[in-house]
Amino acid sequence: MRIGIVCYPTFGGSGVLATELGKALANKNHQVHFITYQQPVRLNEFNANIFYHEVHVPTYPLFDYPPYETALSSAMVDVAINHQLDLLHVHYAIPHASAAYMAKKILEKEGIKIPVITTLHGTDITLVGRDKTYAPVVTFSMNESDAITAVSQNLKDETFKFFKIEKDIEVIHNFVDVSRFRKKPIDAFKKVIAPNNERIVLHASNFRKVKRIADVVNVFAEIRKELPAKLLFVGDGPERPMAEEMCRKLDLYSDIRFVGKQEQMEEILAVSDLFLLTSEYESFGLAALEAMAAGVPVISTNAGGIPEIQLQGKTGYMSNVGDVKEMSEHAIHILKEDAVLQEFKKRAAKHAATFDIHNIVPQYEELYNRFL
Ligand code: GMT
C-alpha cells in the first residue's frame, strides 16, 4: 500500500505513535509518505520505503496567522497525486482531519478517490477539540472521515459523549516496539545520575497543566524522606519553571535533574526504577507503556485510559487524581526492597509485551485493507 501519514512531528505521544506506525508499515514493505511541517523526531533512520514531504507555509505581511491548514491540504493533494497514495491516515483531529477532508474533496474533482482515516489521540477530543472554537469543524471532519479510530476505549467513550458522531469508532490501542526497549543499562550513565546507587525515578512529558507536575515533585519529596533516590525530568513545557521553583523551595534540587527533550528514551528507561504519571487525564499514556516495556513499573493516576494499560498492584499502582499520599506510599513500597522492585519490573515488562508492535500494527493494516 501507499500510505500518507499526517501528524505532529514533535515529541508528543500522537507524533511518536504515528511515526512508529509509519516505520513499522515501511518495514512490512508498504510505502509510507510522512506529510508534516518538520521531520518527525522519531524518524531518525534511513528506510527506502519512507518518504518525507515537508509542508511549507509561506508568510506574507497580510497574514497574522499563516494558513497552515491550507498549505497542509495542498501538500496532501500534491503527494496523493504524484505518489498515487491509496489512503491518508491522519493523527490528531485538529487540524489534520479537516485538512484531509479538503484534500479529499479536491482529489475527487480530479477523479481520484482517497479514503481518509482519522486517529483520535486525546486532547484533540478531551481538551482542544471540545472548545466551541473548534468543535463544529472537528465534529464535521470526524464524520466525513471514512474511518475513525481511538487509542483507547475511554477516548472512544469520551468522543461519543461530547460529539455527535454518526459512525462507529474503532479502538486500536497504542503500541510499543518491545525489542527496542529491552536495553541493558549503561553503567557509566547510571553512575552520573545516581553515584551512590540511589533509586532512579522518572517523569517524561510535555509539562502541560494536565500532567500535574507539582504532584510528581510532591510524590518524589515523600520518596526522598524514606530512601535515597534521584528524580529525572525528561521533556519540556510550560510547567517546568514552576517545577524547578518548587524543587528549590523543597530543598530537593540536588536530587533532581531536568534533562530536557530526549530522543533516546530507551537508554534513560534502562537505568530507571520507577515512572511517575500523575496526570489529570491521559487517553492512553504512551510514555507509561514505553516505561513498562523497558521493565519500569508505573505509579499513575487512574484517569482516562490508563486502567486499560496498567494492572493494579502488578505493573504498578493507580490512585485517584491528586492523591499524592497514596501514590507516595505505593512508590515507596515498590522501591524499598530489591526483591519487590524486581517482581514489579518483571511483570511490567511482561504485560507491556501484550501491546507489542507486532500485535497492533496488523489491526491498522486490516482497517486499511477494508478501504482498498
Ligand atoms: O500527552 C499529551 O499531551 C500529548 C498528546 C499528543 O497528542 O501528542 O498525547 C495524547 O496522545 C498520546 C498518544 O496516543 C496518548 O498516549 C496520551 O495519553 C494523550 N494525552 C492526553 O490524553 C493528555
Descriptive terms for the model:
Glycosyltransferase_grp1; glycosyltransferase activity; seven-stranded parallel beta sheet; Thiol_BshA; 13 strands; globular; Rossmann fold; N-acetyl-alpha-D-glucosaminyl L-malate synthase BshA; binds ligand GMT; alpha/beta; Glyco_trans_1; 2 domains
What does it look like?
Pfam families: Glyco_transf_4, Glycos_transf_1. GO terms for molecular function: glycosyltransferase activity. One of its GO terms (biological process) is bacillithiol biosynthetic process. Residues 189-350 form the Glycosyl transferase family domain. The chain has 372 residues and is an alpha/beta fold. It is built from 14 helices and 13 strands. The protein has helices at 13-27, 68-82, 93-109, 123-126, 135-144, 153-162, 187-193, 213-226, 240-249, 265-270, 286-293, 324-336, 338-352, 357-369; strands spanning 2-6, 31-36, 50-54, 87-91, 116-120, 147-150, 169-171, 199-204, 229-234, 256-260, 274-277, 298-301, 316-319. It is globular. Bound molecules: ligand GMT. The site of ligand GMT has 20 residues, from helix 1.
List the SSEs and their pairings.
Layout: E1 2-6, H1 13-27, E2 31-36, E3 50-54, H2 68-82, E4 87-91, H3 93-109, E5 116-120, H4 123-126, H5 135-144, E6 147-150, H6 153-162, E7 169-171, H7 187-193, E8 199-204, H8 213-226, E9 229-234, H9 240-249, E10 256-260, H10 265-270, E11 274-277, H11 286-293, E12 298-301, E13 316-319, H12 324-336, H13 338-352, H14 357-369
The structure holds ligand GMT.
Pfam families: Glyco_transf_4 (PF13439), Glycos_transf_1 (PF00534)
Domain Glycosyl transferase family: 189-350
InterPro entries: Glyco_trans_1, Glyco_trans_4-like_N, Glycosyltransferase_grp1, Thiol_BshA
